[in-house]
Design goal:
The structure holds two protein chains of two kinds. By secondary structure, chain A is of the alpha/beta class. Chain A contains 13 helices and 14 strands. In chain A, helix 9 packs across helix 13 and helix 10 crosses helix 11. The radius of gyration of chain A is 19 Å and the shape is globular. The mean pLDDT of chain A is 96. In chain B, a hairpin with a 2-residue loop joins strand 10 and strand 11. Chain B is built from eleven helices and 13 strands. Chain B is α/β, with parallel strands linked by helices. Classes of the chains: A alpha/beta, B alpha/beta. At the A-B interface, helix 3, helix 5 and helix 6 of A face helix 5 and helix 6 of B. The structure holds thiamine diphosphate and magnesium ion.
């Protein structure tokens, strides 16, 4: 174990997999210079052949990754969530649908690394938290690491996985620190939620950047004698329903914290599952703490109102307690 | 030793690539101007000067487009010509066979559509020479990708007619277990990376296959077929630029069948020829007679050679024509006057099957009876495929959730 930043942990995961498997390569805009950080040092180690600077052509290189994967390579594409809209056709019409549409013939081991910047005054065009959109599409695995260790372990699993994966790398977490296993065999499986804190009174499911906020809220509530269980699903597709349902079975109360916009968010889906499958376990209405249903305003006075906060989570926990 | 030729105002000397006996024939051009058909024979030719598969244009375009896409200025009327090299009989007959397979396949679908057995599909009739000529220059290990006009490309690459037909019927024995249908035929085992319903969306995919070839130092190439309409999509332009800056072994084969549904490319393409756009991406742009399988074969073969040698991509514009409506079921659009019946009739005079058959017979490669037998065989194969498709079961409900992911994980 070594203490690492979330961003370094992502890079470690990539580098380790690139050392093991020569079919893995990384491409994206300005990746050689690692403008977004996580690719730092990769160009020095792996050179021009495996770290490719692309033109500004999201449709072009998102699709090229699909084609390269279809014939046996394992591409990693780096982009920002906000630029994914430009390459949407390739993500949806090709990456997501190809396998099903072709009756299982296509195997597409491609990882799209979507750096998710928000909360920093970047305004509406650079602050997207778009994973629910991709959950809705199907055929894509959706990964939202919440801790540095998971950032590394899930990245490695993503690269080894044989389906298209989108890694949503939460910008508010990139600078967070935590213990990260050095073991190159360490991976984190998809579809297994992480119970970050055990509790008996209320379940808080926290996604991506909401994880540290939920933990802080749980800490606060503990002072008031409320025992909060914090669960990070880690992957939204596949989703570990069991862990969530079991927890709700125990606590009877659910709060879901999700930085995505409220309508049709990941939280909506999780609450719908609990409503369908564990309604009789609930002792209080479920609470959703998601972003306000607005575009991200530039002004800090407005932007700070948008995202889920620890206080917002605490408020919702209290609501479930009546 | 160079040999100079003069044909209707065209001056130049002839390629050393064809040092064996060959002939240059002059046909009608695509605007329907008739040109006398002449044959010239040369032996032992000299320096490479002209590229003989192009349409030779009346307008002064003396510029060189890449190394092999050289256009020659002519002063007279538009002239079309091609060079007939010694293509083996086997290859010629294979091309004829695949073209007939496509033609009969599409005719059968029309018949079955009229009988209510299948839905509306996009027919490839009139364009057979493009895919077949191009694929004849590819190996099994090379890849192709295509578009919504989706039956010709896979059949040209060697797809199994039964599986293709069963897919169009939505049956379990189809290429995609009935999950893809007409516009998504794919056979990865013979390099068919799939047809696509979103116009231009397979262009980046084929580019990526070529990227894999380059990164891994393999010698396979990829080719993508797309329409004149698709050529205006950003995905196309992005892919051409990407392929050129990275020198990828990919062939961009634009099937300019003159229309995107009802819209003439002349109303949507800012340059005179789509192949002119190659200049912007610093790659050869070649204008080929898409009705002529041999010209398509030769143009593609040279582009493939360049690609395999690490010399990067080529844009090939095949001038061709969709003989039928945009898709089955759109008969009424024909009456909307986006094109004249007379224009269709003109193009039908240059039916790609007639042209190839004539080349084969005239050169003494095979007899008319042999050519007829190829057609009859293909017809029988298609009938068998239709029977096979009809008898194949529909996919069971248990298929619904399969193939979403490589593993058996639950979908929700
Ligand atoms: C992105 C997209 N826009 C529109 C359509 C609807 N559409 C299907 S085929 C077609 C025309 C395509 O023309 P072209 O590329 O020239 O191919 P052709 O049909 O002539 O073979 C259109 C507009 C589509 N399938 N995809
Ligand atoms: Mg067209």
């Amino acid at each position: 174990m070594t203490e690492k930043m979330f961003m370094q942990a992502l890079g470690m995961g990539i580098a380790e997999e690139m050392r093991i498997d020569p079919k893995v390569f990384l491409m994206g805009e300005d990746v050689r210079a690692s403008v977004y950080g996580a690719a730092s040092g990769l160009h020095d180690e792996f050179g021009d052949e495996r770290i490719l600077n692309t033109p500004l052509s999201e449709n072009g290189f998102f699709g090229a990754a699909v084609g390269a994967a279809a014939v046996g390579m394992r591409p990693i594409v780096e982009t920002l969530t906000s630029f994914m809209w430009v390459g949407m056709d390739q993500l949806v019409s090709q990456a997501a649908k190809m396998r099903y549409m072709f009756g299982g013939q296509a195997t597409l081991p491609v990882v799209y690394r979507a750096v998710m910047y928000y909360g920093g005054g970047s305004a509406a065009h650079h602050s997207d938290r778009s994973y629910p959109v991709f959950m809705n599409i199907g055929g894509l695995k959706i990964v939202t690491p919440g801790t540095p260790a998971d950032a590394k372990g899930l990245m490695k699993t993503a690269i080894r996985d044989n389906d298209p994966v989108i890694m949503f790398e939460d910008g508010t977490l990139l600078g967070t620190r935590g213990e990260v296993p050095d073991d190159p065999d360490f991976t984190v499986p998809f579809g297994v939620a992480n119970i970050l804190r055990e509790g008996t009174d209320v379940t808080v499911v926290a996604i991506a950047g909401s994880v540290p906020r939920a933990l802080a809220a749980a800490e606060e509530m503990a002072k008031e004698g409320v025992s909060v269980e914090v669960i990070d699903p880690r992957t939204l597709v596949p989703l570990d329903k069991e862990t969530i349902l079991n927890s709700v079975g125990k606590t009877g109360r659910l709060v879901v914290a999700d930085p995505a916009a409220k309508v049709c968010s990941a939280a909506s889906e999780i609450m719908s599952i609990v409503g369908e499958e564990a309604f009789w376990d609930l002792q209080a209405p479920m609470q959703k703490v998601a972003s306000k249903q607005v575009h991200i305003p530039f002004s800090p006075s407005l932007e700070k109102l948008v995202y889920p906060t620890s206080d917002g989570i605490i408020e919702s926990i209290k609501k479930t307690l009546g | 030793m160079g040999v100079s030729v003069q044909i209707r105002g065209l001056k130049g000397s002839v390629s050393p690539l064809f040092t064996h006996l060959f002939s240059v024939q002059i046909f009608r051009d695509c605007s329907g101007n008739t040109h006398a058909e002449k044959t010239y024979s040369f032996i032992d030719l000299g320096t490479l000067t002209i590229w003989c598969h192009c349409l030779i244009l009346q307008t002064p375009i003396p510029r060189v487009v890449g190394e092999i896409g050289r256009r020659i200025q002519t002063t007279g009327e538009k002239t079309y010509f091609r060079m007939t090299t010694n293509i083996s009989k086997d290859l010629l007959m294979l091309m004829l066979e695949r073209m007939w397979r496509i033609r009969h396949f599409e005719l059968k679908l029309t018949e079955m559509y009229n009988a209510g057995e299948v839905g509306g599909v996009h027919l490839y009739i009139g364009q057979e020479a493009v895919a077949v000529g191009a694929c004849a220059a590819l190996k099994d290990s090379d890849y192709i990708a295509g578009n919504h006009r989706s039956h010709g490309h896979p059949i040209a690459k060697g797809a199994n007619l039964k599986k293709a037909m069963a897919e169009i019927f939505g049956r379990i024995d189809g290429y995609c277990k009935g999950k893809g249908g007409s516009m998504h035929l794919a056979d990865f085992s013979v390099g068919i990376l799939g047809e696509s319903g979103i116009v231009a969306s397979s262009v980046p995919v084929a580019t990526g296959a070529a990227l894999a070839s380059k990164l891994e130092g393999k010698d396979f190439v990829s080719a993508v077929f797309f329409g004149d309409g698709a050529s205006n999509q950003g995905a196309c332009h992005e892919s051409m630029n990407l392929a050129s800056v990275w020198d990828l072994p990919v062939l961009f084969i634009c099937e300019n069948n003159q229309y995107a549904v009802t819209t003439s490319y002349k109303d949507t393409v800012a340059v005179e020829h789509i192949s002119d756009r190659a200049q912007a991406y610093n790659m050869p742009g070649i204008l080929v007679d898409g009705q002529d399988a041999i010209a398509m074969y030769e143009a593609t073969a040279q582009a493939v050679e360049r690609a395999r040698n690490g010399e990067g991509p080529t844009l090939i514009e095949a001038l061709t024509y969709r003989f039928e409506d945009h898709s089955l079921g759109l008969e009424k659009i024909r009456k909307s006057e986006y094109r004249e019946e007379s224009e269709i009739d003109e193009w039908r005079l240059r039916d790609p099957l007639d042209l190839l058959t004539k080349s084969i017979v005239d050169s003494g490669t095979a007899t008319p009876a042999e050519c007829d037998a190829v057609s009859a065989n293909a017809h029988a194969e298609v009938e068998e495929a239709a029977e096979f498709a009809r008898n194949s079961p529909f996919p069971d409900e248990s298929e619904l959730y399969k193939d979403m992911f490589a593993s058996d994980m639950p979908v929700v």
